[in-house]
Amino acid sequence: MTDQRTKSVMSQQRGTRRHGVRGRALLLRRLAASDLRHHVAQAVLFVVAIAAAISVLSLAFALNGVNSNPYQQTMAATNGPDVVAQSANDPYTGVTSPADLAALVALNHAKGVVAHSGPYPIVGDNGPVGAEMRSTDLDTSVQVEGREPGVAAVDQPKVTAGTWIRPGGVVIERSFAETANLHLDQTITLNGHPFRVVGFAVTSAFHGFPGTSLIWATEATARSLATKADPLSYVSNLKLSDASPRAVNAFVNAFGNGLQPKGGPVDATTPFLNPWTAVAYDDSGFLRIDQAFLFTGTVLLGLLALASVAVLVGSRLAEGTRRVGLLKSVGGTPGLVAATFLVENLFLALVAAAVGLLAGWGAAPLVSKPEADLVGAPGAPPLTLAMVTVALAVALLVSLASTLVPAIRAARMSTVGALADAPRLPRRRESLMRLSRKLPVPALFGLRLVARRPRRAVLSAASIAVAVMGLVAALAIHAAVDKKFSHFASSGGLVNPEVPRAEQVLTAITISLVILAALTAIFAAWATVLDARRASAVSLALGATPQQVRAGLAMAQVIPAVPGAILGLPLGLGLFEVAGHHLSGFPPVLWLVVAVLGTVLVVAALTSVPAWIGMRRPVAEMLQTEGA
Amino acid sequence: MQQEVVLAMLAKEPSHGYELRARLARALGPVAEGINEAQMYVTLSRLEKGGFVARLEAPTQRSDRKVYCLTPAGQERVTQWMSDVSWPRPDLAEFHMKLIAAAQGALADPISIIDAQRRDLLRRLREVGRAVMEEEKDSDAALLLEGIVLRLQADLRWLQACEMTWTKRSTPK
Amino acid sequence: MNDTPTVLVHAKGLRKDYGSGEGLVRALDSVDLDVSRGEAVTVMGPSGCGKSTLLHLIGGLDRPSAGELSVAGQRVDGLSERALAYFRRDEIGFVFQAFHLMDELTAQENVELPALLAGYSPNEARTRATELLEEVELADRARHLPSMLSGGQRQRVAIARALVNDPAIVLADEPTGNLDSAAAFQVLGLLESLRAKGLTLVIVTHDERIATTADRLISMRDGAFVDETQLTGGSRGHLGTFAEWEQLS
Questions:
Q1: Which of A240, A344, A501, C15 has its CA 20 to 30 A from that of C5?
Q2: CATH number of the domain to which C93 belongs
Q3: Which residues in chain A touch residue C92, judged by CB atoms under 8 angstroms apart?
Q4: Nearby residues of A204 by Cβ (< 8 Å), 6 or more positions away
């Protein structure tokens, strides 16, 4: 009687099963949660790997439009010009004729101009030869602009230290002053004449060093510095009624010596016009270099993350076959089994995307601190929908790519096989076996361990290759920059301040690559140690010393690391060619050798730690734990 | 019913026939159902004829109320049986009774009986095992010997179980 | 091998504890054991009685918590891990219940592994392995992987492996535990022939048949010896009683 009743209850429920999505969802959630709890370290590594790539990517995005703030603030503080006009000159002698000057003056009243200052006399703006400045430790060419002691209508440079110009006293543009290591009250000579440094200032009219090496002085001083080789020129600052980029470009086209107006001849006296947009662009040059490095870094980190995550997921599948078998034997469909893998990793990918976004966004102010040629803070970078979407897409893509194959494999596994926990049986490579016999014991073990899990070895090699690739490219960039500026400095030149900070970004990326690769190597080593527990125990029982077994476990990581490191070398040099910003030159061979060898040695050192930890249990205990 | 079993039971104290049967029933459980009173009395009178037991006369007793006791000859037979390790056709009940009687009558330590028997069986197993090796595989002799080996193994396992149970009984709580 | 002492295993007051404090488990409780050269000893007992622990200690797979232990003339209880490894390599042959063969190596590669560890050249190791596989009658399966061998065959490969370095003593932990009776019989025969050649054996088993092939049978319970039966040294008289057994006479 009771049986009949129970039966009908169940058959009733059978009808509602189709709508039992909530039940399945709950099950998935529980399985994922318990799995994560048991594998915290792996989950953390998964998140770290993906988050690293995403944080660099979001940082790169965040730098877009970050610099507009300081430029605008500088423009506001100095009442900076929308257009800077410079007088035309004779193409052979460089002399500015009265007609050229008249054309410049005429612009002050052109259609659309609401305010102006100048023309001001300027020396050194015509070509490579400028006034010669000498200080205690420097000898270089500069531009000197003559100004009034009072406040100009447009573009009054903001004095950040000291005072404005006076007879015998000059004001140095701040970024140039910092680069040239000049102090207040210092005496410098210009074309042999001594002057006092009375102040530093910033302007939005010119791009700072290395675009210009600008000094403001009295008009008399400026005129006095003109030579035959470096004749005087004139510059005006114009403010327009409509300062939008389109309007400004239209003004430049209409009145300037840029693009020819349709059908009109080019007048030789037409002044050269430089819109504020061009200066702003130059001022953000450092950011663009940083962005370029960051985008490249993202790709590298992304590849590395892919390899790391693949190693992680691969080893999880090996452990989790019994769970798969259990699920299947109680009625789990292949779809459900695949879903258990995917759900977990998708959740982690989302976490990684969030962490990466926040990290990148938070780091943006650090990277985008403006150069000395501008005042003002960058302000919070925008967190756009585009950034979030891309971050999510990258995270999901990486986790899917690495999880898909194992998930499908788990779904296809036969239930019986999975229950019997017959994991991927170690493969046998005839040639490797024959080779390994002839090697000393640690190499014999190492090679055989590699042969057992070839996929993991390939992934390890790939991750080392990517890390070395980044390392070599970074070294090449460092070397090229050093070379370029070492001989630059020896001839009295100065270091572009953009360079050290670009190098900082580069170093940060390189360090991230190295750390991630190290973590992956350690994890792969740990997975190998666990995998090989039984084989290690049997070897010990047969008379291998613990040192030999440990060395073998380390060799299992070193053997794939060697080709990986060697491969990374040409890849890194190739990357340098492609993304190195027109830098050229070959890094010192010694550095490259150290990079490659050092990587292999570091891998050996790192992986000996899990090997040591794994071998600490007594042999008898290790033999009891079953495994393949 | 083996005569030695009845004798050993009397070692505890002189008893009536039906008392003996009751004790047997308690000790053997369902296995005792095949034994009836008549068989008991047949065995007792045989033992009396053999001089191993004697009847304690009480003048007006009916036969079923007679009390039997051991004679010195009977006592000696019991002692001999206690240390006897012959293992005739496997009759677990007999060995089982030997242990119980030994304990109840304080005749010997059941555990040493078990150990001694076990040792003997082990030696027999060794001999038979060797004999099997020497025979041709799948011959008639080998087949028979194989059967003996298997039974000896089974018996040894039972002896192990006996030892565990009797050890538990002897260890004070 | 002629200058090895006549007592191959000497254990005195051997003790092994696991855990500490509340969770202390005494696996072996002051065990004394002497095994002579050429003797075969079996140890029987219920699970958890410490018989496997004893075997592991003798084989240098674990260290005693107290007591002294000498095997093949060497004091073993104080050796470093490295010295123990050399000791295992040269003096001990171990046979496990679960065979513990490497799945990705062929039979002959499995057998030659201890020889390679001991520093023999690949050729020498291969020669020795082939010899031994012939002795265990598996020469035709030398190139088979363990997955292609039956349980009994795998155990025979394991026995060949245990013999490859000419050990002083062979230790077997439930060698027939995972085998059906036919395979067990074959292994039994193999162990018998090893004994006949004068090899010293210590076998842990719950199979009485294997146990009685030995010279001496030790029963253990709760980490201590409770019984010792000498099986050899008697006459072959017992067979006669079979007649009365089966009521043939």
A1: C15
A2: 3.40.50.300
A3: 543
A4: A71, A74, A75, A78, A80, A81, A155, A276, A279, A280, A374
Percent helix, percent strand, percent coil in chain A, to nearest 5: 60, 10, 25
**Which of A87-91, B21-25, C183-187 is the most confident on average?**
C183-187
Instruction: Compute the half-sphere exposure of residue B40: CA atoms within 13 Å on the CB side of its CA.
Output: 24
**Going by C-beta distance under 8 Å and a sequence separation of 6 or more, which residues neighbour residue C159?**
C95, C136, C170, C175, C187, C190, C191, C194
Q: Do B47 and B74 form a contact (C-beta atoms < 8 A)? A: yes
Strand intervals (E) in C19-76: 25-36, 40-44, 66-71, 74-75
Residue in chain C closest to B137 (alpha carbons) equals C185
Strand arrangement, sheet containing C224-230: C92-95, C169-173, C200-204, C40-44, C216-221, C224-230
Q: May I ask the CATH architecture of the domain B1-85?
A: Orthogonal Bundle (1.10)
Q: Which chains touch A (3 or more CB pairs under 8 A)?
A: C
Instruction: Please tell me the distance in Å from C101's CA to the nearest CA on chain B.
Output: 29
- The residue in chain C having the minimum alpha-carbon distance to the alpha carbon of residue B86 is C241
Number of domains in chain C: 1
Please list every residue in chain B whose beta carbon sits closer than 8 Å to the beta carbon of residue C247. 89
Please report the pLDDT score of residue A109 as a whole number: 87
Encode pLDDT of A526-550 as tens digits: 888 888 888 888 898 898 888 899 9
What's the pLDDT band for A493 if we cut at 50, 70, 90? low
pLDDT tier at A496 (50, 70, 90 boundaries)? low
C167: pLDDT confidence band, cut at 50, 70 and 90? very high
In sequence order, what E strands does A244-303 have? 272-275
CB pairs under 8 A between B and C: 50
Judging contacts by C-beta atoms under 8 Å, the chain B residues touching residue C189 are 133
pLDDT digits (tens, 9 = 90+) for A257-271: 655 555 445 677 788
What are the domain boundaries of chain B? 1-85, 109-173
**Does residue C26 lie in a domain region?**
no
Tens digit of each residue's pLDDT (9 = 90 or more) over C107-158: 999 999 999 888 888 899 999 999 999 999 999 999 999 989 999 999 999 9
**For residue A7, what pLDDT band results from cuts at 50, 70 and 90?**
low
Q: Which residues of chain B are within 8 Å of residue C212 when distances are taken between CB atoms?
A: 122-123, 125-126, 129
Please state, in angstroms and rounded to a whole number, the distance separating the CA atoms of residues A466 and A206. Answer: 41
Mean pLDDT computed over A501-521:
85
Average pLDDT, stretch B86-115?
85
pLDDT (tens digit per residue) in A24-44: 777 778 777 877 887 888 888
Dihedral in degrees, nearest 10, Cα atoms A58, A60, A65, A68: 120
Task: Residue C117: list chain A partners with CB under 8 A.
Answer: 441, 539, 542-544, 548
User: Do the Cβ atoms of A542 and C86 come within 8 Å?
Assistant: no
CA angle in degrees (0–180, nearest 5) for B130-B133-B138: 135
**Which amino acid, one-letter code, is at C155?**
Q
- Closest partner residue to C117 (CB to CB) among A426, A441, A537 is A441
Structural domain range at position C211 = 38-63+78-231
The pLDDT confidence band at residue B34, using thresholds 50, 70 and 90, is: low
Across A102-130, b (16+ Cβ under 10 Å) vs e yields ebbbebbeeebbeebbbbbbbbbbbeeeb
Tokens representing residue A231 in the block:
């004749």
The beta strands (E) that lie in A148-291 are given as 158-162, 169-173, 187-190, 193-202, 214-218, 233-240, 272-275
Residue C23 lies in a domain: no
Q: Does residue C79 belong to the interface with chain A, where contact is any CB pair within 8 Å?
A: no
More confident residue, A94 or A109: A109
Could you read off the pLDDT of C60-89 as tens digits, one per residue? 888 899 999 999 989 998 888 888 888 988
